[in-house]
Amino acid sequence: MEAINYPLFFIHISKTAGSSFRVAAEQYFGKEHVFYDYGPKAKETNPEIRALEYDKRDRYASGMNIVEKAKFVTGHVNHPKYAPFIPAKNAVTFVRDPLQQVRSHYEHFTRHHRYKKSFSEFVNEPRFKNVQYKAFQGTWPDAIGFIGLTERYSESLALINKMYSIDIQGLDINKNTEKKSSRYELSEEEVALVKKHNEHDFKLYEFALTRFERQKLAVESDSSFIRYGKTNMAKSDEGKMMKGWAANYDSQSAVALEARVGKKKIADLLASEYRSTANERNIHRSGFIGFSFVYPKKLKDGTQVDFVVKGTGEVLFGDVVKR
After folding, report:
1. DSSP secondary-structure letter at 51?
2. How much of the chain exceeds pLDDT 70, in percent?
3. Domain end call among 220, 252, 268
Protein backbone atom coordinates (compact mmCIF):
# COMPACT_ATOMS: atom_id res chain seq x y z
CA MET A 1 0.00 0.00 0.00
CA GLU A 2 1.14 3.56 -0.71
CA ALA A 3 2.09 5.95 2.09
CA ILE A 4 -0.60 8.43 3.01
CA ASN A 5 -0.81 11.82 1.34
CA TYR A 6 -1.79 13.90 4.39
CA PRO A 7 -3.99 14.78 6.13
CA LEU A 8 -5.82 11.73 7.43
CA PHE A 9 -9.48 12.48 8.19
CA PHE A 10 -10.88 10.50 11.10
CA ILE A 11 -14.69 10.61 11.34
CA HIS A 12 -15.19 10.24 15.09
CA ILE A 13 -18.53 8.55 15.71
CA SER A 14 -19.54 8.69 19.36
CA LYS A 15 -18.77 5.63 21.49
CA THR A 16 -16.94 3.60 18.88
CA ALA A 17 -13.42 3.70 20.42
CA GLY A 18 -12.74 7.01 18.71
CA SER A 19 -11.21 8.70 21.74
CA SER A 20 -8.59 5.98 22.04
CA PHE A 21 -7.73 6.35 18.37
CA ARG A 22 -7.53 10.14 18.29
CA VAL A 23 -5.36 10.38 21.42
CA ALA A 24 -3.01 7.73 20.05
CA ALA A 25 -2.90 9.61 16.75
CA GLU A 26 -1.94 12.80 18.58
CA GLN A 27 0.92 10.95 20.26
CA TYR A 28 2.10 9.64 16.90
CA PHE A 29 1.72 12.75 14.72
CA GLY A 30 2.45 15.37 17.38
CA LYS A 31 -0.03 17.81 18.88
CA GLU A 32 0.86 20.59 16.43
CA HIS A 33 -0.16 18.40 13.46
CA VAL A 34 -3.51 17.22 14.86
CA PHE A 35 -6.55 19.46 14.33
CA TYR A 36 -9.72 18.81 16.33
CA ASP A 37 -13.16 20.05 15.34
CA TYR A 38 -15.72 19.32 18.04
CA GLY A 39 -17.74 22.48 17.48
CA PRO A 40 -17.28 26.17 18.39
CA LYS A 41 -17.76 25.69 22.14
CA ALA A 42 -15.55 22.65 22.68
CA LYS A 43 -12.18 23.38 24.28
CA GLU A 44 -10.59 20.67 22.12
CA THR A 45 -11.44 22.49 18.87
CA ASN A 46 -8.35 23.83 17.14
CA PRO A 47 -8.14 27.63 17.55
CA GLU A 48 -7.51 28.13 13.83
CA ILE A 49 -10.60 26.09 12.96
CA ARG A 50 -12.58 28.08 15.52
CA ALA A 51 -11.39 31.39 14.06
CA LEU A 52 -11.81 30.54 10.37
CA GLU A 53 -14.72 28.08 10.40
CA TYR A 54 -16.87 29.34 13.25
CA ASP A 55 -15.99 33.02 13.73
CA LYS A 56 -15.34 34.11 10.13
CA ARG A 57 -17.52 31.34 8.69
CA ASP A 58 -15.06 30.71 5.88
CA ARG A 59 -14.93 26.94 5.52
CA TYR A 60 -12.77 27.15 2.41
CA ALA A 61 -10.06 29.08 4.26
CA SER A 62 -10.35 26.69 7.19
CA GLY A 63 -10.13 23.64 4.96
CA MET A 64 -7.12 24.91 3.05
CA ASN A 65 -5.40 25.75 6.33
CA ILE A 66 -5.97 22.18 7.50
CA VAL A 67 -4.56 20.74 4.26
CA GLU A 68 -1.48 22.94 4.61
CA LYS A 69 -0.75 22.29 8.30
CA ALA A 70 -2.48 19.14 9.57
CA LYS A 71 -1.55 15.49 9.33
CA PHE A 72 -4.66 14.33 11.18
CA VAL A 73 -8.06 16.01 11.52
CA THR A 74 -10.98 14.68 13.51
CA GLY A 75 -14.14 15.55 15.38
CA HIS A 76 -17.79 14.63 15.69
CA VAL A 77 -18.31 15.85 12.13
CA ASN A 78 -19.89 14.16 9.15
CA HIS A 79 -17.80 13.07 6.18
CA PRO A 80 -19.03 15.77 3.72
CA LYS A 81 -17.70 18.60 5.90
CA TYR A 82 -14.08 17.99 4.93
CA ALA A 83 -14.64 15.90 1.81
CA PRO A 84 -13.87 18.83 -0.54
CA PHE A 85 -10.38 19.09 0.94
CA ILE A 86 -9.45 15.51 1.80
CA PRO A 87 -9.88 12.56 -0.59
CA ALA A 88 -12.23 9.81 0.55
CA LYS A 89 -9.20 7.50 0.41
CA ASN A 90 -7.84 9.34 3.47
CA ALA A 91 -11.06 9.10 5.49
CA VAL A 92 -11.23 6.48 8.25
CA THR A 93 -13.80 5.63 10.89
CA PHE A 94 -14.95 2.91 13.28
CA VAL A 95 -18.44 1.46 13.56
CA ARG A 96 -19.88 -0.63 16.38
CA ASP A 97 -22.70 -3.08 17.04
CA PRO A 98 -25.63 -0.65 17.25
CA LEU A 99 -27.02 -2.28 20.39
CA GLN A 100 -23.76 -1.63 22.20
CA GLN A 101 -23.17 1.79 20.66
CA VAL A 102 -26.61 3.12 21.57
CA ARG A 103 -26.41 1.86 25.15
CA SER A 104 -22.87 3.19 25.56
CA HIS A 105 -23.95 6.54 24.13
CA TYR A 106 -26.76 6.70 26.67
CA GLU A 107 -24.45 5.85 29.56
CA HIS A 108 -22.01 8.51 28.39
CA PHE A 109 -24.73 11.15 28.29
CA THR A 110 -25.93 10.29 31.78
CA ARG A 111 -22.37 10.49 33.17
CA HIS A 112 -21.04 13.51 31.32
CA HIS A 113 -24.00 15.56 30.09
CA ARG A 114 -26.39 15.29 33.05
CA TYR A 115 -28.96 13.45 30.98
CA LYS A 116 -31.82 12.52 33.30
CA LYS A 117 -34.28 10.74 31.03
CA SER A 118 -34.71 6.96 30.74
CA PHE A 119 -32.99 4.75 28.21
CA SER A 120 -36.26 4.35 26.32
CA GLU A 121 -36.68 8.11 26.08
CA PHE A 122 -33.09 8.44 24.88
CA VAL A 123 -33.63 5.90 22.11
CA ASN A 124 -36.77 7.73 20.99
CA GLU A 125 -35.05 11.10 20.60
CA PRO A 126 -34.33 11.86 16.91
CA ARG A 127 -30.83 13.23 17.63
CA PHE A 128 -29.73 9.84 18.98
CA LYS A 129 -31.14 7.73 16.15
CA ASN A 130 -28.87 6.21 13.48
CA VAL A 131 -25.90 8.33 14.57
CA GLN A 132 -23.42 6.04 12.82
CA TYR A 133 -25.26 6.17 9.50
CA LYS A 134 -25.62 9.95 9.77
CA ALA A 135 -21.85 10.36 9.91
CA PHE A 136 -21.64 9.30 6.25
CA GLN A 137 -24.40 11.74 5.24
CA GLY A 138 -24.86 10.66 1.66
CA THR A 139 -21.35 9.34 1.03
CA TRP A 140 -21.33 5.78 -0.25
CA PRO A 141 -19.91 3.75 2.68
CA ASP A 142 -17.60 1.70 0.48
CA ALA A 143 -15.92 4.92 -0.66
CA ILE A 144 -14.55 5.61 2.83
CA GLY A 145 -10.85 4.76 2.98
CA PHE A 146 -11.12 2.39 5.92
CA ILE A 147 -14.00 1.34 8.17
CA GLY A 148 -12.78 -0.34 11.33
CA LEU A 149 -14.80 -2.35 13.83
CA THR A 150 -14.85 -1.36 17.49
CA GLU A 151 -15.18 -5.00 18.47
CA ARG A 152 -11.99 -5.74 16.55
CA TYR A 153 -10.14 -2.56 17.44
CA SER A 154 -6.58 -3.93 17.65
CA GLU A 155 -7.00 -5.74 14.35
CA SER A 156 -8.49 -2.62 12.76
CA LEU A 157 -5.63 -0.46 14.01
CA ALA A 158 -3.05 -2.86 12.59
CA LEU A 159 -4.75 -2.69 9.19
CA ILE A 160 -4.90 1.12 9.28
CA ASN A 161 -1.20 1.27 10.09
CA LYS A 162 -0.30 -1.06 7.24
CA MET A 163 -2.64 0.60 4.76
CA TYR A 164 -1.36 4.13 5.43
CA SER A 165 2.23 3.24 6.36
CA ILE A 166 1.93 4.76 9.84
CA ASP A 167 2.41 3.41 13.37
CA ILE A 168 -0.36 4.55 15.70
CA GLN A 169 -0.22 2.62 18.97
CA GLY A 170 -3.15 0.96 20.71
CA LEU A 171 -4.68 2.80 23.67
CA ASP A 172 -7.72 1.97 25.79
CA ILE A 173 -9.32 5.11 27.23
CA ASN A 174 -12.69 6.80 27.88
CA LYS A 175 -14.39 3.59 28.95
CA ASN A 176 -17.19 3.23 31.47
CA THR A 177 -15.24 1.94 34.45
CA GLU A 178 -18.46 1.13 36.30
CA LYS A 179 -19.42 -1.48 33.72
CA LYS A 180 -18.77 -5.00 35.02
CA SER A 181 -18.46 -6.79 31.68
CA SER A 182 -17.21 -5.89 28.21
CA ARG A 183 -20.76 -5.86 26.80
CA TYR A 184 -23.99 -4.24 27.86
CA GLU A 185 -26.89 -6.60 28.51
CA LEU A 186 -30.19 -5.35 27.10
CA SER A 187 -33.64 -6.74 27.69
CA GLU A 188 -35.71 -8.09 24.80
CA GLU A 189 -37.84 -4.96 24.91
CA GLU A 190 -34.77 -2.71 24.77
CA VAL A 191 -33.29 -4.68 21.88
CA ALA A 192 -36.54 -4.35 19.94
CA LEU A 193 -36.71 -0.62 20.65
CA VAL A 194 -33.13 0.02 19.51
CA LYS A 195 -33.69 -2.00 16.33
CA LYS A 196 -36.91 -0.12 15.60
CA HIS A 197 -35.23 3.29 15.74
CA ASN A 198 -31.82 2.47 14.26
CA GLU A 199 -32.56 0.47 11.14
CA HIS A 200 -29.95 2.33 9.06
CA ASP A 201 -27.24 1.72 11.66
CA PHE A 202 -27.93 -2.01 11.65
CA LYS A 203 -27.70 -2.16 7.85
CA LEU A 204 -24.48 -0.15 7.94
CA TYR A 205 -22.95 -2.46 10.53
CA GLU A 206 -23.82 -5.58 8.56
CA PHE A 207 -22.21 -4.01 5.51
CA ALA A 208 -19.12 -3.07 7.55
CA LEU A 209 -18.67 -6.63 8.81
CA THR A 210 -18.53 -8.01 5.26
CA ARG A 211 -16.44 -5.18 3.93
CA PHE A 212 -13.93 -5.54 6.77
CA GLU A 213 -13.08 -9.07 5.69
CA ARG A 214 -12.69 -8.03 2.05
CA GLN A 215 -10.44 -5.12 2.89
CA LYS A 216 -8.43 -7.11 5.41
CA LEU A 217 -7.58 -9.65 2.72
CA ALA A 218 -6.54 -6.88 0.31
CA VAL A 219 -4.42 -4.98 2.84
CA GLU A 220 -2.65 -8.07 4.20
CA SER A 221 -1.86 -9.34 0.71
CA ASP A 222 -0.89 -5.90 -0.66
CA SER A 223 -3.45 -6.31 -3.43
CA SER A 224 -5.85 -3.78 -4.92
CA PHE A 225 -9.18 -3.28 -3.20
CA ILE A 226 -12.09 -2.53 -5.53
CA ARG A 227 -14.76 -0.29 -4.02
CA TYR A 228 -18.17 -0.39 -5.59
CA GLY A 229 -21.90 0.07 -5.29
CA LYS A 230 -25.15 0.72 -7.05
CA THR A 231 -26.20 4.30 -7.81
CA ASN A 232 -29.65 5.84 -7.97
CA MET A 233 -32.00 4.76 -10.72
CA ALA A 234 -35.58 5.55 -11.54
CA LYS A 235 -37.97 3.00 -10.08
CA SER A 236 -39.16 2.18 -13.59
CA ASP A 237 -35.60 1.22 -14.63
CA GLU A 238 -35.03 -1.30 -11.86
CA GLY A 239 -34.62 -4.78 -13.27
CA LYS A 240 -34.15 -3.37 -16.77
CA MET A 241 -30.72 -1.83 -16.35
CA MET A 242 -27.95 -1.25 -13.85
CA LYS A 243 -26.22 1.94 -12.80
CA GLY A 244 -23.27 1.61 -10.47
CA TRP A 245 -19.77 2.72 -9.60
CA ALA A 246 -16.41 1.06 -9.04
CA ALA A 247 -13.02 2.48 -8.12
CA ASN A 248 -9.50 1.30 -7.41
CA TYR A 249 -7.78 3.91 -5.23
CA ASP A 250 -4.38 2.49 -6.16
CA SER A 251 -4.81 3.46 -9.81
CA GLN A 252 -6.07 6.38 -11.86
CA SER A 253 -7.34 3.98 -14.52
CA ALA A 254 -11.04 3.21 -14.74
CA VAL A 255 -12.04 -0.19 -13.38
CA ALA A 256 -12.81 -2.69 -16.14
CA LEU A 257 -15.85 -4.89 -15.52
CA GLU A 258 -17.78 -7.66 -17.17
CA ALA A 259 -21.49 -8.36 -17.06
CA ARG A 260 -22.04 -12.11 -16.84
CA VAL A 261 -24.89 -14.57 -16.86
CA GLY A 262 -23.50 -17.62 -15.14
CA LYS A 263 -19.99 -18.02 -16.54
CA LYS A 264 -20.86 -16.38 -19.86
CA LYS A 265 -19.74 -12.80 -20.47
CA ILE A 266 -22.46 -10.73 -22.10
CA ALA A 267 -20.77 -7.30 -22.04
CA ASP A 268 -17.56 -5.40 -21.26
CA LEU A 269 -18.01 -2.32 -19.09
CA LEU A 270 -15.73 0.51 -18.00
CA ALA A 271 -16.41 2.46 -14.80
CA SER A 272 -15.64 5.83 -16.37
CA GLU A 273 -18.96 7.69 -16.40
CA TYR A 274 -19.37 10.86 -14.35
CA ARG A 275 -21.19 10.66 -11.02
CA SER A 276 -21.81 13.99 -9.29
CA THR A 277 -21.89 12.40 -5.83
CA ALA A 278 -18.44 10.93 -6.40
CA ASN A 279 -17.10 14.32 -7.43
CA GLU A 280 -18.73 16.22 -4.55
CA ARG A 281 -17.47 13.67 -2.01
CA ASN A 282 -13.94 13.70 -3.49
CA ILE A 283 -14.08 9.94 -4.01
CA HIS A 284 -11.85 9.26 -7.03
CA ARG A 285 -11.05 10.32 -10.61
CA SER A 286 -12.98 13.61 -10.17
CA GLY A 287 -16.19 11.57 -10.10
CA PHE A 288 -15.61 9.58 -13.30
CA ILE A 289 -16.15 6.16 -11.73
CA GLY A 290 -19.68 5.24 -12.87
CA PHE A 291 -21.04 2.67 -15.30
CA SER A 292 -24.40 1.88 -16.90
CA PHE A 293 -25.70 -1.25 -18.55
CA VAL A 294 -29.08 -1.82 -20.20
CA TYR A 295 -30.04 -5.49 -20.06
CA PRO A 296 -30.38 -7.08 -23.52
CA LYS A 297 -33.93 -7.87 -24.54
CA LYS A 298 -32.99 -11.53 -25.02
CA LEU A 299 -32.54 -11.95 -21.25
CA LYS A 300 -35.62 -13.51 -19.75
CA ASP A 301 -37.43 -12.37 -16.63
CA GLY A 302 -35.67 -13.65 -13.52
CA THR A 303 -32.22 -13.95 -15.14
CA GLN A 304 -29.34 -13.29 -12.73
CA VAL A 305 -26.76 -10.79 -14.03
CA ASP A 306 -23.45 -10.54 -12.16
CA PHE A 307 -21.02 -7.64 -12.37
CA VAL A 308 -17.46 -8.91 -12.19
CA VAL A 309 -14.01 -7.31 -12.05
CA LYS A 310 -12.23 -8.07 -15.29
CA GLY A 311 -9.04 -10.00 -14.75
CA THR A 312 -9.64 -11.08 -11.16
CA GLY A 313 -13.14 -12.53 -11.53
CA GLU A 314 -14.29 -10.94 -8.26
CA VAL A 315 -18.09 -10.69 -8.24
CA LEU A 316 -19.06 -7.24 -6.97
CA PHE A 317 -22.82 -7.68 -6.96
CA GLY A 318 -25.70 -9.15 -8.93
CA ASP A 319 -29.12 -8.13 -10.13
CA VAL A 320 -32.23 -9.91 -11.39
CA VAL A 321 -33.85 -9.00 -14.71
CA LYS A 322 -37.49 -7.95 -14.46
CA ARG A 323 -39.58 -7.67 -17.57
Report:
1. I
2. 96
3. 220
